[in-house]
C-alpha cells in the first residue's frame, strides 16, 4: 500500500509539532484551547532557599534571532519582570517593618548560548540595561547554581 504525499507531509508536520511541544499539557492546550492567548513553556524556574533567590530563565540558541520569540512570550516575560521589580522595591522599602526577609535575587533572564555552554549571554529583564557574557562552562554552572555574580562577567550591549 502506497502512502500519499499529503499523508507523508501531514505525518512530518505532526512529528515536527511533537518535537516542538514537549509536554502532554502543552499539546492539549495547543489542540483544545483558544489561540488568541499565549501559553508559555518557560525553560527554567529555579529557587534556592539557602540563597533566598528565585529565577525565571528563558533560553534561546546563540544563533536564534530574538525575532523568534513570540510576542506573547516576550509580553509575559516583561510582565513577570515588572512584578519581580515591584516586589523587590516593596520588600526593600517595607520589608523590615513587615518582618519580610529580603530576597537576594528575584530575577527574570533571557539567556543565549549553545552546548557545551562555554559562554552564556544573560539579559537581565528585571534590572533592565544589564547584560553580561559569562565565560567558561564552570562559571555558567556557578551562575545557574546561584553562586556567581553576573557583574563578574563581561558587560555586553543590552540589545534584545
Q: How does this model look, in words?
A:
The chain is an alpha+beta fold. The chain folds into 2 domains: 1-37, no CATH class; 42-155, no CATH class. The chain has 4 helices and 6 strands, in the order H-H-E-E-H-E-E-E-H-E. It has helices spanning 5-20, 24-32, 71-94, 137-144; strands at residues 44-48, 53-61, 105-113, 119-124, 130-135, 154-155. The chain has a 6-stranded mixed sheet with strand order 1-2-3-4-5-6. A hairpin with a 5-residue loop joins strand 4 (119-124) and strand 5 (130-135). It starts with a helix and ends in a 5-residue tail after the last strand. The relative contact order is 0.11. The model has no long low-confidence stretch (mean pLDDT 82).
Q: List the uncertain runs.
A: none
Mean pLDDT across every amino acid position: 82
Fraction of residues in helices? 25-40%
Structural class: alpha+beta
Radius of gyration: 19 Å
Order of strands in the sheet with the most strands?
A: 1-2-3-4-5-6
Q: Would you count the extended β strands for me? A: 6
What's the number of helices?
Answer: 4
**Coarse shape:** globular
In total, how many domains does the architecture comprise?
A: 2
Order of helices and strands: HHEEHEEEHE
- Largest sheet, if any? 6 strands, mixed
Strand percentage, roughly?
A: 15-25%
How far apart, in Å, are the first and last alpha carbons? 51 Å
Amino acid at each position: 500500500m502506497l502512502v500519499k504525499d499529503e499523508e507523508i507531509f501531514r505525518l512530518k508536520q505532526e512529528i515536527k509539532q511533537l518535537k516542538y511541544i514537549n509536554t502532554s499539557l502543552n499539546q492539549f492546550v495547543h489542540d483544545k484551547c483558544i489561540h488568541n492567548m499565549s501559553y508559555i513553556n518557560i525553560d527554567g524556574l529555579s529557587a534556592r532557599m539557602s540563597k533566598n533567590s528565585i529565577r525565571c530563565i528563558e533560553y534561546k540558541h546563540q544563533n536564534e534571532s530574538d525575532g523568534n520569540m513570540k510576542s506573547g512570550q516576550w509580553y509575559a516575560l516583561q510582565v513577570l519582570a515588572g512584578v519581580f521589580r515591584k516586589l523587590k522595591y516593596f520588600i526593600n522599602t517595607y520589608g523590615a517593618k513587615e518582618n519580610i526577609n529580603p530576597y537576594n535575587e528575584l530575577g527574570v533572564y533571557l539567556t543565549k548560548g549553545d552546548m557545551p555552554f562555554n559562554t552564556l549571554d544573560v539579559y537581565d529583564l528585571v534590572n533592565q540595561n544589564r547584560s553580561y557574557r559569562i565565560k567558561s562552562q564552570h562559571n555558567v554552572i556557578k551562575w545557574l547554581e546561584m553562586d556567581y555574580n553576573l557583574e563578574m562577567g563581561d558587560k555586553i550591549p543590552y540589545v534584545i
